[in-house]
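[step 3/7] fold_predict: job queued, chain A
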Amino acid sequence: MSLKGRVALVTGSTSGIGLGIAEALADQGADIVMNGFGDPAQVEKVRADLAARGVRVAYSPADISKPAEIAQMVELAHKQFGSLDILVNNAGIQYVADIQDFPAEQWDRVIAINLSGAFHAMHFAIPGMKAKGWGRIINIASAHGLVASEQKAAYVAAKHGLVGLTKVAALELANAGVTANAICPGWVLTPLVQKQLADRAAKEGTSIEAMGQEFLREKQPMLQFSTPEQIGALAVFPCSDGAKTITGSAQSIDGGWVAQ
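[step 4/7] structure written:
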């Protein structure tokens, strides 16, 4: 498969899952608009590493909680590369507390980035996709888009909402040449999760490997983390000709989490 000539925007792609997806799309020839926060030197290194795959790479520092900045990011793709063909809404944050203790400002922040940001990106990207007659929208939801866990009210609500938003887009765009699908990962071994494991292992006086197994046993029958590279490989498929009629789906990659 080749995505040469296609332009992909991946939010939250300076590290973790988003970077894994950007790398996978670049390996198939797609030009990339990357987005996210980080040290400028590190962001430039990521951009250069992506460009070394033989594609054009631009960077937008857009804050996904701000619709005006999202609009500018989509406009950057059109101005610099001529189109926006693949939109991957990946940016997300987490906050953990019981509902009765959940700060209102944290609820608003999680919903703004995890759900509203995806809506605004789709709102600005869809007209260009419809005009071209081809587009792929991939929303990175979560196993928590399908099932719940305690103390994650905003995250679970946002990810359930993102799966629903994906289905609405699929229906509205069914005959426009544009598909919309969600990917629902379970535990993924990102740098953030690795740090959580290391910190918790140090606190409890155990090994990182043992702590990782404890994390997995809480939710996943398959005691293996997914990797950003595996999420990236799954994200490539909806962009292929073989996935032309796959739309409105929520594709689990979670070691059996939601099969229980």
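[step 5/7] annotate
The CA atoms of residues 2 and 240 lie 8 Å apart.
Residues 189-225 form one domain.
exit 0
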